[in-house]
Amino acid sequence: MPLIIMGYVSGSWLGSVTVCRLTNKPDPRYSGSCNPGASNVLRLYGKHLALATLLIDALKSWPVLIIGLVLNLPPWGLGLVGVSVLLGHCYPQWNHFRGGKAVASAFGVMLLLVPGVALLCAMTWGLLAWKVRTAAVASLVSAALAPLISLWLAPDYTAVVVVFALLVLGRHAINIRRVRRGEEPRL
C-alpha cells in the first residue's frame, strides 16, 4: 500500500508545470490544448522544453518502481504501482484532478518493466507523429498496439499493459472526437 501511495504522489508531479516555472514560461495548462503534456509544451514553447517535460514525466515513476523491483514484487504488484503513477499523472489532487494523458508516464513505467514493449511503442509513436503530424493519433495507435506487443514480448505483463492502454485511450476521448472532425492540432 505505501508504494501505491508513493506512486500516486510521484505521478502527480507534472513535468510541464515544473519546466515552465523554471524557465518563466506561462503554465501550459492554460494555453494551447491546456494539457500539461510534452506535445502541448512542444507546440507552445519548442522542442527543448518538450524534451525536458518528456524526461520528467517518463522517469518520475522509476524511484518507486525500483523499490518494487528490489522488494521482488510480482508483475501484478508492479503493475498496481505503475497504475498508481498513471492515475497520479492523470488526476493530481493538487490540480483539481486535472492532469495529463499519461502517454509519457506510461512509456516510462513500461521502459523499466517491459523495455521491449516500450521501445516498439515509442518507435511506432515517432513514426506516426512524423508521418501524420498529430500526437494524438500517434498516441492512440501506440497505446492500442501495446497489449499486442506485450503478448509477444512480455506475456506476464499483458494484463498490466492492457490497463495502461485503456487509461491512455480513455484520456484521449476528446482527441478522438477532434480527429474525427479534422480539428486535432498538429505538431
- Tell me the domain tally: 1
Q: Helical region count?
A: 11
Proportion of beta-strand residues: under 5%
Radius of gyration: 16 Å
Spatial separation of the terminal alpha carbons: 39 Å
Structural class: mainly alpha
Shape: globular
Low-confidence stretches: none
Question: How do the helices and strands follow one another from N- to C-terminus?
Answer: HHHHHHHHHHH
**How helical, in percent, are the residues?**
over 70%
**How many extended strands?**
0
Mean pLDDT over all positions: 94
Give the biggest sheet.
none
Which key features would you list for this structure?
single chain, mainly alpha, 72% helix
Structure description:
- It is a single chain.
- With 187 residues, the chain is mostly helical.
- The chain has one domain (2-181).
- Helix content is 72%, strand content 0%.
- The chain contains eleven helices and no strands.
- The chain has helices spanning 2-11, 15-22, 38-45, 47-59, 62-70, 75-90, 103-113, 115-132, 135-153, 158-171, 173-181.
- Helix 1 (2-11) packs antiparallel against helix 5 (62-70), helix 3 runs antiparallel to helix 4 and helix 7 runs antiparallel to helix 8 (115-132).
- The longest helix is centred in the last third of the chain and has 19 residues, at 135-153.
- The model has no long low-confidence stretch (mean pLDDT 94).
Give a summary of the structure in a few sentences.
With 187 residues, the chain is an all-alpha fold.
List the helices and strands and how they pair.
Elements: H1 2-11, H2 15-22, H3 38-45, H4 47-59, H5 62-70, H6 75-90, H7 103-113, H8 115-132, H9 135-153, H10 158-171, H11 173-181
Helix pairs in contact: 1-5, 1-6, 2-4, 3-4, 4-7, 5-6, 6-7, 6-10, 7-8, 8-9, 9-10
